[in-house]
Amino acid sequence: MQFTSVSFLLFAAVTVGLYFSVPRKRQWWVLLAASYLFYFCAGAEYLIFILYTTCVTYLTARLMQKRADAEDAFVAANRDTMEKSERKAYRAKEKKKRLHILALGLLLGFGMLAVLKYTAFVLTGVNSFLSLFGTARVTIPSLLLPLGISFYTFQSMGYLIDVYRKSVRAEGDFFKLALFVSFFPQLIQGPISRFSSLGNQLFEPHAFDGFSFRAGLCRVVWGFFKKLVVADTAMIAVKELTSNTAEFTGVYVFLLILLYSVQIYGDFTGGIDITIGLSEMLGIKLAENFDRPFSSKSTKEYWRRWHMTMGTWFTDYIFYPLSVSNSMQKLSKWSRAKLGDKVGKRIPVYLATIVTWFLTGLWHGAGLNFIVWGLLNCLVILVSQELQPLYTGFHQKFPRLTASKPWGVWQAVRTFLLMGLIRSLDCYRDVPLTFRLWGTMFTDFQWGTLFCGGLLSFGLDVADWCVILGGVLVIFLVSRLGKTEPVREKLAKRPVLMCLCLCALTVVILLFGAYGIGYDASQFIYNQF
User: Fold this and answer.
1) Domain ranges in the chain?
2) Residue 135 gets which letter from DSSP?
3) Separation of alpha carbons 37 and 9, rounded Å
4) Using CA atoms, how far apart are residues 509 and 224, in angstroms rounded to an integer?
């Protein structure tokens, strides 16, 4: 069942209707049934994988919770007879046992994801190595990649880590945990939720709220507009530009960077708008995943605004634990002693940053291009950190310039283009080819070709260009109007105006949405990762 299909709209409408029709204490059962029906429609064979993840998560979390409860009970019962050092030693011993359980759960959870998603990538690398010696190649098996497996695995494993840290208690009801893992609006492309913020919302009763329903509906329609009208129209040109790289070089590479930025923003934020909007209609608030990322003035700021739940997941569960681990503390001590305090203190932090970005790239896809994409983002961030004293000095020397609006615009444009350049690795997929095409922007950049028929040579006509440019302008204006209060909430307070706007937007979607033979509106970009 596709997010942008009529069948999904009917499915969502029936789900919302049933949700508010049944007794409130049974509402979460409606969500659980809807989530598994949604996943069944995507592929009945996928059910075994999400059930596997749910069982692993449930059992390991319950085991950790059982040990944690026994630990607390023992300490409480023996508080008067145990020395502080004894209590500390006992807790450390029990924590280590819980860590072993956690490690088992992470191994089983991430292990399945690794096998299904990365087996072909690893064996392809093995075959490339074996070919150097003329050795027989290893057969690469064809494995299923279940819908949304990266998202529900990361969400589930984050929950396990939180239980281990005692940030949340393990859910005792298997079916409630199953709903947390499988909640259908966020199954395809997130956001990656935390049990502490989403769990209670899924299980507690919700009365119908007209304001939330209207605001959510506005967001759903807005998401369809960004996906079908803007992103998928731009996608037509992106596909053509990347399928004929011998012809489309130089200025076309620059154009691809712009178009793919438009496509991925409309595609990903459009999907997230549908997800969050539908959840809001049900009275459930999901975490925001974007905060006007293209207005960012640096790469670091950009990644605080783009796919925010993914960024916080890697920060909380990879970067921080790695950077304060015993191994890193030993490395920090050694490096400071051997290399000096100034250099030595950077090594553990930079190493943790490199590992985090390597894994971020690998999470996005099983390919060298994604790994290089992650490491290039890491490189830009680390270089920017090292150059921070120069930036500070420049700002102090030219305060009026750096405080001006044109300077802020320049910073945003610079960051947008840099992120778009690195993101083109996702389009071309071939790393050496991507680097060569970047080079053609300096050796074969001819603006004139675009205005001598070039803009009409890769699948877009004048009307399509008007749709893209008009759509980008509308998105920009809505973003500006919603800086203090989201436009959807302003409209939700004015039902008549809201109905007029939604009707107009629906007409625009029906008239200008990218449809046609061979076109698959279901394939959100992040659904492919």
Assistant:
1) 6-208, 209-286+430-529, 294-423
2) P
3) 14
4) 7
